[in-house]
Amino acid sequence: WHRIMADRSIEQLQQVLRADYKSQLQQFTQAHLRATPEYRIVDTSGPDHAKHFHVEVRLSERVLAGGVGRNKQIAEQAAAQAALSNLQAQATPQDGEAIAVEYTTANPDDFYDEINEEVGR
User: What are the helix (H) ranges across the chain?
Assistant: First the structure.
């Protein structure tokens, strides 16, 4: 562990963690919704040497977002990034001011309703 840390600065490690959208999405959904996102390949396209994977990320039965990539991992990261963007957009009031909201719902289907109540939509 110390050898790994010596090879990289704290800032480099933080950049890697910030780019890991799957981890960010999982932390958010587990903390606020007590649910774990699931990734599902919905389609593949292209020839064998240049496939593209189409993935969707779900919470319960609700599709949060989709992503495409040249391998499964890239497609899952793209889907997680899109889901985080969608969740952030839902949690931001129309006038652009961010709000701090503690979400207490255990049902992911109630999540958007709870956000909209908080921002007055």
Answer: 2-7, 10-19, 21-33, 72-90, 111-119
Tokens 């991992």 correspond to what residue? 73
Length of the chain: 121
* pLDDT per residue as tens digits for the range 49-70: 999 999 999 998 899 999 999 9
- Alpha carbon distance 29, 34 (integer Å): 6
pTM above 0.70, yes or no: no
Compute the C-alpha angle 39/99/67, nearest 5°: 20
Q: How many CB atoms lie within 10 A of CB 77?
A: 21
Q: In what order do the strands lie in the sheet with 62-69?
A: 38-45, 52-59, 62-69
What CA–CA distance (Å, rounded) separates 46 from 13? Answer: 34
Contact 22, 76 (CB under 8 A): yes
Q: Is the dihedral of CA 27, 29, 33, 36 positive or negative?
A: negative
CB 37 within 8 A of CB 64: yes
Q: Other CB atoms closer than 10 Å to residue 84's CB: what's the count? A: 19
Tokens of 13: 């490690």
